[in-house]
Amino acid sequence: MTTSAVLMALARRAAILLASVLVASVVIFLFMTVIPGDPAQVALGVNATPELLARTRHEFGLDRPLISQYLDWVGGVFSGDFGTSYVTREPIGPQLVDRLGVTVWLVGTGMLVALAMAIPLGTLAAVRHRKPSGAAISGFAQLGIAVPAFLAGMLLVQLFAVRLGWLPSGGWTPPNQDAGAFLRGLVLPALSLGLVQGAVLTRYVRTSVLDTLGQDYLRTARSKGLRPYQALFRHGLRNAALPVITVLGLQLATLLIGAVVVERVFVLPGLGSMLLDSVASRDLLAVQGIVLVLVVGVLLVNFVVDLLYTVLDPRLRGS
Amino acid sequence: MRRKARCAAVLALLAVLSSCSAGSTATVSQDESTLSVGFTAEPENFDFTSTDGAAIPQALLYNVYESLVKVDARGRIKPLLAKSWTVSRDRTVYDFQLRPDATFSNGAKFTARDVKFSIERAKTDWTISLKSKMDVVDRVEVLGPTHARVVLSRPSNSWLFDMASRVGAMFSRTGVADLANKPVGTGPYVVADRRRGDSIVLPENPNYWGRKPAYRTVVLKYIADPTALNNALLSNEIDVISQITAPDSVPQFEADNRFRVIQGTTSGEVVLAYNNAKPPLDDVRVRRALTMAIDRKALLDTAWAGRGELIGSMVPPTDPWFEDLSGAYPHDPARAKRLLASAGKQNMSLRLRIANLPYAMSAAQVIESELSEIGVRVTIEPLDFPAVWLKEVFTDHDYDMSIVQHVEARDIVTFGDPDFYWGYHNPRVARLLEQADSGPPSRQAGTMRRVARQITADAAANWLFLFPNVIAAKTKVTGLVPNQVSESFDLTGVKPAR
Predict the structure, then answer these.
(1) Any chain B CB within 8 A of the CB of A132?
(2) Percent share of chain A, pLDDT over 90
(3) Topology classification of domain B69-168
(4) How far is A99 from chain B (nearest CA, A)?
(5) Mean of the per-residue pLDDT values for chain A?
(6) What pLDDT score does B30 carry?
(7) What is the C-alpha end-to-end distance of chain B, expressed in Å?
(8) Is the interface score ipTM higher than 0.90?
(9) Which of B20, B51, B129 minimises the CB distance to A46?
(10) Where exactly are the structural domains of chain B?
(11) A151 shares contact with chain B (CB less than 8 Å)
């Protein structure tokens, strides 16, 4: 396959990505228009007179035709301007970047926890699938799947923050301000988000490794004198990774959603808490911006997963 | 080989755990000069002239912004930026002597010209509906740097009280360019740093004219989830919970000698609103029957763990005209049933469209079951608060019954407005309210009591209970105001225990 063919393929995928973002922006915008509740009324509170309401709606630009509201918004977004919030009266873009930073840390470390737990445990469970320890791991994973992240969070807080006082129960310190406090604050949220996803992932890793273990090439490797783990590490893991990567992409989306709730439990000023606050105060421009960022995030993850396939599996490059 | 790896893993785990325990001391700064107070509702911005809601004045009034007068914990009007004042015989001219030494945090001196500027600005530039409290002002005159005269178009007993609320806040003529983000006031604290979704930092104002606050820095922490807020106090991340919103969690603080629980009153009446303008609730017999059918004591126990007060009308105990009317409609389902029968309304179905807030949700269920006993079918419809509730119930009056907490001070006056969502129209009440405001001050309390009795007699609404003000604080923090009379979470008297 030539370089230009690779570039062509990349460009095609990027075009699909862009088109998806555009479609998403239309859908998001239309959703906002049907949500009941008037941003101007929420800002003005009780007893607002009709004249004031009209004036404020005009100020917010809510009295213009929908199509021009949409074009303004999308045009702004593509030039990096998400508009000015109805509620905070500040530009939304910088707030989004700020909040996104928190959520990326949370989701990133949550994913690390999940991987750090799922890969060894899943592999172990597969290799020992006929032994009690393997069954125990599977059972534990089953239990983990049943526990929602927010419940795990509340239990962890009760134990480690309230009873033992080892870790803060919530709050956020930016890493550049105090790295120690930042890490301590991240432990419990990352665990509560990661453990549950880790349990889910453990089962996929187990199945995938089990599949690989039954393949002919592994038997060949064994017959050349490699020990079971050696054979698996040298020849099996790369193959076992493919299905796991697919699930990982899907799970990142789940983690983003889970982060919304976990941010509430741990008082983290991330995109999730911003989303909840903005919905409550009908800060529709901000809601639009946040949802768009989340959608783009999920699309990008899928894009990267697609690319990873071709890196991991040379066979896919030819097709 | 394997054993070695296991040992290493155990050691690594221990290392991680020990590094965690180092965190136990680093939660709130142990510095005695910093106070950290937790709230549930975060100010969206700092501009209460254009954004309604309780969160902004709670943080800023008396702490960052000051008014000419303030309301103390017992509801009395006290001097603040005005040292003293006199009122003319016809009660339309107020002469204020101002403090000569007050300055704004932008360095400008506070003078009578700022008084004129602030009051006139409320009439012209403010957008929230509270601005109407200044409608009664005819003009403001500057008689000298420290002498301001306010002339009212008619006598008003409530105007000075309103001047102690956010509409009376004093702004600098050179400090209103970016109210949403850079508030400029004369108060003991200034706004230094805000981390949205997290906290606001208020360091002391080094040039404050009055007594220096005991805490040099106050951190206002915003924690929306009630459980997370409780955990923050339990795990030493904050010093005070400004108001506990999960009443079931109060006993854990009462039982713990590290904390003190302070319970006072608010001006927040939790009201079961009746749509007085629409059948079948336009019939006073029906409203009375419904009021009798509900056991408010039992409701308070169920909905809010028995914390709060039964009031029976739209007046909190901190208002001078309070009178306990909670016994006006004793719980009597049999009599309620007979009353409904005599009104010919035996098979009613009512829509109870409530704010989707914890107190309203639990109260609604009690009401549904109690009214079913007198043969009234109730459908509960929770509406997203504030957005949807404001639109459908408050503005469009599309409801039979509703539950929401009315937090504004002295909001009994809403019963004089036939367009208010109560749909209540009794000309006598409107006339009495007018008399109470413009008549001699000595008669105000008596007239207001007659208003309260009248709306209770008309069963214009069902006052379920008065929302409690439950503060939990570390025992080392004193000076917290138990009764929430003003709109401010007043930090000026808070100090460490000696």
Answers:
(1) no
(2) 17
(3) Dipeptide-binding Protein; domain 1 (3.90.76)
(4) 9
(5) 85
(6) 53
(7) 61
(8) no
(9) B129
(10) 2-60+187-265+470-496, 69-168, 269-466
(11) no
